[in-house]
Each structure stands twice: as structure tokens, then as C-alpha cells.
Amino acid sequence: MSQLPHDPSAPMPPAVRRRIFMSTMLGNVVEYYDFTLYGTLAAIISAQFFPSGDATAALLAVYIGVVLSYAIRPIGGLILGPLGDLKGRKFVLILTIALMSIGTAGIGVLPSYAAIGLAAPAILLLSRLVQGVGASVEYTTAANFLFEHEQGRRPNFVAGVLNSTCSVGSFLAAGLAYVMSVAMPGHAFADWGWRIPFLLSIPIALIGVYMRNHVTETPEFQEILREAEQEKVKQTPLRTALRYHWADMLKAIGLGAGQRIGSYTIQAYFVTALITAGFPASQALLASMLTYVVGPITSVWGGQLADRFGARPVLLTGYGLFVVLTVPTFFAIGEKSIVLATAAVVVFTLINNLVAAPLSVAYVLSFPPEVRATASALNFNIGTSLVGSTAGLVAVWLFSITGSNVSFGWYMTVACLVSILVTVFALPKALEHRKAMRGTATAAVAK
Q1: Is residue 5 one of the residues assigned to a domain?
Q2: I want to staple 306 with a disulfide (CB 3.0 to 4.6 A). Which of 17, 156, 166, 211 is the partner?
Q3: If the chain, 447 residues long, is cut into consecutive pieces of 10 residues, what is the mean pLDDT of each piece?
Q4: Under 8 Å between Cβ of 303 and 161
Q5: Burial group, residue 118, by CB count within 10 angstroms (0-12, 13-18, 19+)
Q6: Residue 199 included in any domain
């Protein structure tokens, strides 16, 4: 294991910081590349791996794959989260990027339903489960790794930069899908060309594993490990997190409810909503790509504002705008104007990313270092699985009943109201006491 530098509280050399940021954020790119690719190509995947005859049933089956990949995440969090507290953040980061890429590449080589019958959807869902296990702790472990290396400096800004890489992964996925769909002749993309973006996850993963293998473990974790060895203390992060920190986990889940649905809508459902509203797939993909271009702007800006003025004003502003504008967003999509629809989804994305940074801080820094990987994995994955991953099924179901995506807008508005109530009455301590958290983090590594 790497040794601590002589002065852990001193700023890292720029080259070391760049290496840590790049290696950490590459895994985030892989996670959202896969997620967006699967959602963007849902219509093609449904035709490839499920029986023909009922397009709605096939599309629902594809979204069930999304739900399964998220349903497995709390289980993955139960396994991999404690590993982050026992064996280290770096160890888990290497494992997660490998698992995610295996699941993604597996879809790229999977024979179609026409070739192997029912085995095709079964293996498809298995690939989603593998990807879900890998992704279960990727974001929270990456955030934890950065927070602990930064030792409490600018936590919301760091979270905003990390969250912006979600848009990078999503942009790569949507961009590749769009370019290949318009560049390939005839039905070539729908027949086999769609596999290429899935297979590209392999070289990305190899680069990520190499980079993560060449960074040092966080000083804070090394200190925890040394103390445990010196005092002969048996570490039980899962039991400790569930026994003493369940209330903070519930606060974090409620705080992120509205944004979890918003993130899913941007990354997977907007393309479907635009197509069902009558827009060509090429226009829907272009609108989706634009959201990934503008998203990082407010992700980083929201983090800067939260560090300067506190998280509560940023969260109330973002969720308040969502309450006012979510339903009009879906009305705009149904107005048959691609300009109006694109403007609506861009504004929606800007709002969603505005609140992302303080939410990431709440997910991770609400917990002490010795259980941080475990508790953050649990609250993030339970909230995302119960609220975020089911959004696609709810949206398709509501559309089948009402014939309009506006009903889904009302559903998300209610979730945002829940998040506002948590912001006002039960804001996690990590967001209420930024300076105290920063001092605690610095003191922990300076022992």
C-alpha cells in the first residue's frame, strides 16, 4: 500500500490531482455511457432480443432490464460498499469498471432472439445484472475517493465536476448512436451496427483499469486502516451503518427523489418521449445530445454556488423550478415543434444538474469515514432503484393509459415536492455544516 505524503493537509501536486481526477471520472463516463446507450437504443434492442408482434410489450421488457439492473444495485451495494471500507476505495474502483464493461460488452456480442430464441432475452437481462452490480458503487466510491483526496476542499465543486462527466458518457453514447444511424446504409445500423458502440466499452475499460491501478489510496482510508490494525478492532461497516446511520440514509434518499427521476428522464426517456410524440429518431437523438452538451454548465456552477452560499438555497431554487416547469416541459414535447421541444428538454437538464452537486455531497459526506463507502452505496442505490429506475416503467404505463407524457410530468412534480420538504425540514448535516465537515475531514487525515 502507498505511503502517506509527509504533509497530508498540503495541496496535492497538480500532476497527481489530474491523474486522480481523470482515473476516477473515467469510470463515471463508462457507467453513464452504458446507461444512455441502452436507453437510447431501446427500440432497436427490443426488436433484436424479444419476440415481434407487440412493440409496446417488447419496449416494456427492455425497460424491465433497466429496472433489474437497478434492482440489483442495493445488493451490489451490500457487497461492494463494505469492501470499500475494508479493502479500500481504489480496490473497489478497479472492480467496478471491470464489471460494468463486461456487462456492456456482453450485449454487443449477444445473438438475437431470431438466432437463439428465449436465451437471448435471458442473457440480455443477465448482462444488465452484471452491469448493475458494477455500477452499484461506482459513483459513490468515485465521489468518496475524490472527497478524501481533496480533504474537504470545495466538496460541492468537486461533486459538480464529477457529475458533469455523467453528461460526457451520455454524450458519447448518444453521439455515436446518432452518427452511426445516419452514416450507415439502409438497415445496417438496426441489423448489426448498433453493436459497435457497446463493444467500444472494452478499450475504454482497459484504459480505466490501468489508470486506476496507478493512483494511490486515499490518506483518510490509510489512516483508518492503520488505526484498526493498531487497536485490533474488527471493522463491521455494514452493521454499523444500518444501526447508527439509517436516518441519515433516509434523508438522502428523500432529498434526491426528484432529481433521480429527472436524471433518468434525461438519460433514457426523453428520446422515447420525443419519438412517441411523432418526431423522427434523428431529431430526438440530436435534442438528447444537446442536453449532454449544456448539462455540465450548471453541474459545476451549482457546486460553486453551494460552496459559497450553502446547499439549501441551491436545492430550493432547483426543485422549485422543477415544480413550476416539469409539466410544461412535457406539454412542449407534445406541441409538434422540435425547436420548442428541444428548448424544453435543455431547460429541464439545466435545472436537473443545478442540484446534482449538493446531492452528491449529501449521499457521501453525511457519514463518517469508517462506514462512508457502505452507507453512501446503500442510500444512493436504494433511492435510485426505488425512484429512478422505475421511472421508465411508470412513464410507459402512464402513456398507455392517458396517451400523453404530461401525466409523467405530474408524477415527477410530486417527487420534487417531497425533496423540497426534506430540504426545508430534514436537510442532511453534511449540507448544513459545510465548514464543520471540511474541518473534520482535514483533521482525520492529519492525525
Answers
A1: no
A2: 156
A3: 45 81 88 83 84 76 79 90 93 94 92 89 91 92 93 90 89 85 84 91 88 90 84 84 94 95 83 83 83 91 95 97 95 90 94 96 94 94 86 85 90 96 93 53 41
A4: yes
A5: exposed
A6: yes
Residue 321 belongs to domain spanning? 14-445
Contact 276, 270 (CB under 8 A): no
Residue indicated by cell numbers 483518510: 220
Q: How many domains does the chain fold into?
A: 1
Residue 86 in domain: yes
In three-state form (DSSP H/G/I as H, E/B as E, the rest C), the secondary structure along 12-56 is: CCHHHHHHHHHHHHHHHHHHHHHHHHHHHCHHHHHHHHCCCCCHH
CATH of the domain at 357: 1.20.1250.20
C-alpha cell of residue 269: 426517456
Could you tell me if residue 320 is inside a domain? yes
Which amino acid appears at position 348 of this protein?
F
What 8-state DSSP symbol labels residue 371? G
Helix (H) or strand (E) holding 270: helix 270-276
Predicted model pTM? 0.85
* DSSP result, 192-218: IITHHHHHTHHHHHHHHHHHHHTSPPP
